[in-house]
Write a structure and sequence with these properties.
Order of helices and strands: HHEHHEHEHEHEHEHEEHHHEHHEEEH
Number of domains: 2
Helix content: 40-55%
CATH class of the largest domain: Alpha Beta
Strand content: 5-15%
Number of helices: 15
Strand order of the largest sheet: 2-8-7-6-5-3-4
CATH architecture of the largest domain: 3-Layer(aba) Sandwich
Shape: globular
CATH superfamily of the largest domain: Type I PLP-dependent aspartate aminotransferase-like (Major domain)
Largest sheet: 7 strands, mixed
Number of strands: 12
CATH topology of the largest domain: Aspartate Aminotransferase, domain 2
Distance between the termini: 46 Å
């Protein structure tokens, strides 16, 4: 055996399994093979701010962009992130001790447990949740507790399901609202309650918030609105979704100085930072285009409404999400009656219709029986995907 038990616990990951299926579909030579419509990843087709990309291109010509970038070289970016926090939340942040540049927020959520937990320590995550939340805990050999989210509670966490003894065992709680995959915006009161519990039971509260500016209904919560965040909180922000820069892997953490220091120490061992050109583009995005995410909302709202209308006409009852980018769709009753899991249904839709969705079980046990659809194509493509489903759906329904 040349691989670890830890790797076995991680498994292949839902996105990797989907990637293999999509590759097999793309290489298929069957008759009537239709081009893939990939709605499985939250990788938007919308454009980032032109000025941000132009700034990257300009600085890319400078020799400094070919050099390694250590923490000190990220000071201009950290200053911009701190200024954005002041503008966005009215919170003054110390760019030197409370902000850290990340290679995507996924890096932060995956590495934080390694920085603050010892093997066997207990941590709590939502179920379902983004895979890096569990993955980071598996890498840290943590004992994982889950907090199930259900449609019956409108995806609100029920902190009372944990006993006092279980709360006392925890050292870390990881939340994320607006929530991926359920597309629930969430409420500030949920974070406030979580912070109160964190103070009461002496644990760290981490909040994954890449969708903070993409709430279609209501205002998104933020850990930075909780007064105790400087004592035991850390929040992860990203330019991937709101500024359409996913491939550039630009994100940052804002948090209690000891947590930022710990994550920085770990980061200093496992990687360097993005080049100065990418950082310059991120600075321009935050400084000059803080309103960019708000420009995307009408597009996502139209896509949400038109896609739900098309799916309803098909016979698929899909709840209305309050957050941009995703639909969280229950496996239809007739498919469940056939014994099809969400993973099997996703495989069938890809093989027979050329439409790729993400199985909900890839986000945790409570995601079983659901599929996630990403609204990352123009309305015409989204409606075309539903049109493709009709003949196959009618044959099986």
């Amino acid at each position: 055996m040349i691989t670890s038990d830890r790797l076995a616990r991680l498994g292949s990951g839902v996105f990797d399994r989907n990637d293999r299926r999509k590759s097999a579909y793309a290489s298929s030579e069957r008759q009537n093979h239709q081009p893939l419509i990939d709605l499985s990843l939250g990788s938007t087709d919308l454009s980032p701010p032109v000025a941000a990309v132009e700034a990257m291109a300009e600085v890319l010509q400078h020799p400094s962009s070919a050099s390694y970038c250590l923490h000190a070289g990220t000071q201009p970016f950290r200053n911009a992130a701190a200024a954005w926090c002041q503008q966005r939340f009215g919170i003054q942040v110390d760019a030197e001790t409370e902000v850290l540049l990340l290679v995507g927020s996924q890096e932060g959520t995956a590495h934080l447990p390694l920085a603050i937990l010892d093997p066997g320590d207990s941590a709590l995550i939502l179920d379902p949740s983004y895979p890096s939340h569990r993955g980071g805990l598996e890498l840290a050999d943590a004992h994982i507790h889950t907090l199930p989210l259900t449609a019956e509670r409108d995806w609100a966490p029920d902190f009372d399901v944990l006993s006092s003894d279980q709360w006392q065992q925890l050292r870390l709680m990881v939340l994320g609202f607006p929530h991926n995959p359920t597309a629930c915006t969430g409420e500030q009161a949920w974070l406030d309650e979580a912070m109160d519990l964190s103070v009461q039971h002496d644990l760290v509260l981490a909040h994954d918030n890449p969708y903070v500016d993409l709430a279609l209904e209501g205002d998104a919560p933020s850990l930075l609105r909780c007064p105790q965040w400087r004592e035991r909180g850390i929040e992860f922000f990203s330019l991937s979704k709101g500024w359409c820069l996913g491939g550039f892997r630009l994100a940052f953490a804002v948090g209690a100085a000891p947590l930022i220091h710990a994550l920085r120490q770990l980061k200093g061992v496992v990687d360097f930072n993005q080049c100065q050109a990418l950082q310059k583009g991120a600075i321009v995005a935050l400084d000059q285009h803080a309103d960019w995410p708000s420009r995307l909302l009408p597009v996502y709202r139209q896509r949400r409404d038109r896609m739900r209308q098309a799916l309803t006409a098909l016979g698929w009852d899909v709840p209305e999400p309050s957050m941009a980018l995703y639909l969280w769709m229950p496996v239809p009753g007739w498919a469940a009656d056939r014994g099809w899991s969400d993973e099997q249904l996703a495989a069938e839709l890809l093989e027979h219709c050329g439409v790729a969705l993400t199985p909900g079980s890839g986000f945790g046990d409570s995601g079983s029986g659901w599929l996630r659809l990403a609204l990352v194509r123009p309305v015409e493509d989204l409606e075309n995907a539903v049109t493709r489903l009709h003949p196959w759906w009618d044959r099986h329904h």
